[in-house]
Amino acid sequence: MPRRKTRKVTKKQPRKPTRTRTRSGATAKVLKSSVALIAATCVKIIRTLTPSGETVNRVAAGAWHSRSVRRCAGLVGGIVVVGLLSWVMLHNLRGTDRYTVDPGRIELSANPAWAKGTLAKQLKVDIEDALRADLADMPKSSAFDAEIMQTISDRLENDPWVARVIRIERRFPTDADSSSFLLPVLEIRTPAIAVERDDHYVLVDGDYVVLPLSLKKEEFEHFESQLNVRLRIVRGVEGEAPVAGKPWTTEQVAAAISMERVIRKAQLDNAIHIEAIELIGVPQQADARGRVHYQPDGGVVLIPDQASLPGTRLIWGRPPVHASTLELSPNDKLEQLRAKLLALDSVAETRIDLRYKG
Fold first, then answer.
1. Degrees, nearest 5: CA angle 220-225-228
2. CB within 8 A of 150, min separation 6: which ones?
3. Among the residues of the chain, which ranges form H helices?
4. How many CA atoms lie within 13 A of 240 on its CB side?
5. Model's pTM, two decimal places?
6. Using an 8 Å Cβ cutoff, are 255 and 288 in contact?
7. Is the CB of residue 199 less than 8 Å from the CB of residue 165?
8. Domain segments of the chain as ranges
9. What is the pLDDT of residues 82-113, one digit of tens each?
10. 75/142 Cα distance (integer angstroms)
11. Which neighbouring-strand residues pair with 247?
């Protein structure tokens, strides 16, 4: 029998696990080497740029021997010394009585330029007394204190007579017996119109602010004779006037003041003196959308001096603040008035309508 071939069976050896490089490990290695390289480069640059002690000494010696450098150093040193001396002197002066101001005894210059004669003198005294009373409770302070200047300015501007504080001047002692004081320079409000009430007139300036001066009707003529410019009377303003120092913000007051400005600017009084402005059908307030609804044929009527032109009326229509495209412009109305005044021999008992052409 033939032999059967036998096969030799060998056991398979298990494979050894192979190592694999991860991408994150390679990236970390690159970053470390990059950081090390950058750090070495920075150290090298710093060592290159940093001057040695010998170089510093050479530069300093050269700068000191330079005339311009010595001059600059001397100038800076002088400024520092002067600043220190000034600070010491100011610190010492703050505590002395001669450089202390009392706001209750402040010097004031409140000159109502629109008045003259005894009226101007009396108004000046009354206004300055009221302003000193506004400052009477303020404590004494150093004349060098900036805060006291601002506080005084704010208090003065709250007074009904003061339109604005132009500036406050410091005045220091000029001899052994004098002392420091403050001198505010003020702009006093100027009345623009006299609004007629039942038995008196309320004065209002060009900013609609009510002035602290109410005139009885029998006093108005004497008061007006002491004004540099005559004061216009306004009729037809409704409602109560606000307290002095507050603006009278109604459409009627705005209409009167805008009309007064046109009369002044055009110097209409030189041709025909306007004694009063009468408002007819002018609303007190605008509606919710800001529109001002006049009554039919409502507007402004200008009344000339009735002593010389009795019965004369100038129908102006809507004042400039409420101008309408259906009427002539203020300039056209003035031109038409001049033309009619030249054409008429007499305007007494005349009704001149300026709203429309013709």
1. 115
2. none
3. 23-49, 53-64, 67-93, 117-135, 146-157, 220-224, 251-266, 330-343
4. 3
5. 0.71
6. no
7. no
8. 62-93, 98-188, 191-353
9. 665 555 555 545 556 667 777 777 778 788 99
10. 32
11. 209
